[in-house]
Amino acid sequence: MKLSLKGKWCFTFLLCVVFFILVLQIMKNHQSKKSLITLWSTHAPFSTDPLEYDVISHHICFRSILSSVISQYHLGKYEGILAESWDPFDEYKGWKFVIRKDLHFENGDEITPDHIVRSWMRMAYLQKKKNSHNGFLELLDGFERITSPKSSIRGIQVKDQTITLYFTKPCKKLLETISFGLYSVIHPKNYDANTGEWKNPKKVISSGGYKIDSWGKESIKLKRREDFLPEIRHPQAPENVFITWDPEKKLDSDLISGGSNEKKLGTNRVFQGPVISNIAYVICASWTDANSICHNLENRVLLRNEFYKALIQDGIKPTFSFFPLTMANVRESLFKTENNTNFFTNSKKKFTLRYVHTWFKNPFFDPFDIAMEKIAKKLNLKPKKKNITQQQVQKEKDPLLKTQTFDVAMLGTGILIDDPMADIRFMFLSKEGIRLSDIDGSIHKELEQENFDPQKINELIWDQAVVWPVGHFSFGIWAKKHIDFSEINTVLPPIDFQWIGLKN
């Protein structure tokens, strides 16, 4: 059958239309793929509450969801997010912030100065209730008069679009402090107005450049908010971010959170992160329990020494200093191995060594389980591996608890090298951070000094033997080469997706 000239023309036209549609679809799929960044996280998040922000998975998942008044994440500058301008006065005992107009939460409600004040007042109330000190809210004039999240104090005043803060002592580092996610701005619908309690750990109304699109068992998907300050972000910021903690998806991800010492990830990726300021350490959480193996100082020292010996046998050289040696005047402690290793064998009591299975993959952490098994065998202890969540470990680090479900766990944290004094105080005085213990009050006494000696704190940590330092590394992001990090400040814990992009 032969087609007429008209029929041939129609057939050719249809082929062109189909081809054009296929090209558009391919371009659309390519563009969709380019607008998506995938990231593998070491841990699953468990709460959107800023009170729980000092967990690395929450840094990763929620830094882009909840806005701060000021951000340090844009490389080389303080970026006003909710604030359009700010000024200190009275030699830094006061600060004024002019808040932007026409910014909105994801539900359409306008973000007002009152929302910012209410967010801070909620945090102040909860911190006061727990006797937590973070170097910001407890310094506000009238902090001691706070009785509820609705309290008003002289230290926070609002007039039109201006928030004025009055402190009892100079706060020169305020901008760095309020950039931290702990002080991000939240919608009052997310918490109880009278108690400050967070309503739903898997729900939050976004006040930032991204919102939660979905939250499943193995992943969270974030979606960029086109209505939120499009001029203040990387020009190629991803439209969608897929964050997973599924081990099987790790190597397929564009970004992998991890340590600079995980060299095997460097085959087709570049490490983006701060200087070596992260700390791998073991915590003896059960030192408060009179029936625990860790209650006695001599026991803790013996366990620590045997742990170090086991690491060295496995080719790991521990660093006998909790604080990174990159800090000025910080030195390692003297490691002495002379112990009575028959102490537990001769004891009438049969001790159990309860250790938390390490979920964090890193060269410092990997030998932990093996080392615990070796110690138990050598000291005639009954080993018991505990598979508990990171959230449960966080709860049981509270020194006020008298019993715990585990004795030792391998953990990680970090310290800001550009302001280590404030960070050391945060480690011991804050109930929202890593909550390091001080068994006899000697560390807290040292921290009362305005210019304390970090090495003295370092030595007291060693002497108390509740914390066993293991090593230091940089924790950041291993990124494929099509991800642009040129606009983000990688000194801070990762990651604010507003300031990374996709290369053309």
Describe the structure.
This protein is α+β, with helices and mostly antiparallel strands and 504 residues long. The chain folds into three domains: 38-47 and 209-274 and 475-502, D-Maltodextrin-Binding Protein, domain 2; 66-190, Dipeptide-binding Protein, Domain 1 (Dipeptide-binding Protein, domain 1), CATH 3.90.76.10; 278-473, Dipeptide-binding Protein, domain 3, CATH 3.10.105.10. Helix content is 25%, strand content 19%. It is built from eleven helices and 20 strands. It has helices at 5-34, 56-62, 113-129, 174-179, 297-313, 343-346, 368-378, 390-396, 420-429, 442-447, 454-464, and strands at residues 36-40, 70-71, 79-80, 83-89, 94-99, 156-159, 162-166, 210-215, 219-224, 240-244, 255-259, 269-272, 278-284, 352-356, 382-386, 408-414, 467-473, 475-480, 483-484, 501-502. The protein has a seven-stranded mixed sheet with strand order 8-9-10-1-11-18-12. Strand 14, helix 7 and strand 15 (382-386) form a beta-alpha-beta unit. The longest helix is centred in the N-terminal third of the chain and has 30 residues, at 5-34. It is globular, with a radius of gyration of 26 Å. It starts with a helix and ends with a strand. 41% of the residues are buried. The model is unreliable at 21-33 (pLDDT under 50).
What topology emerges from the helices and strands here?
Blueprint: H1 5-34, E1 36-40, H2 56-62, E2 70-71, E3 79-80, E4 83-89, E5 94-99, H3 113-129, E6 156-159, E7 162-166, H4 174-179, E8 210-215, E9 219-224, E10 240-244, E11 255-259, E12 269-272, E13 278-284, H5 297-313, H6 343-346, E14 352-356, H7 368-378, E15 382-386, H8 390-396, E16 408-414, H9 420-429, H10 442-447, H11 454-464, E17 467-473, E18 475-480, E19 483-484, E20 501-502
Parallel strand pairs: 1-10, 1-11, 14-15
Antiparallel strand pairs: 2-3, 4-5, 5-7, 6-7, 8-9, 9-10, 11-18, 12-18, 13-16, 13-17, 19-20
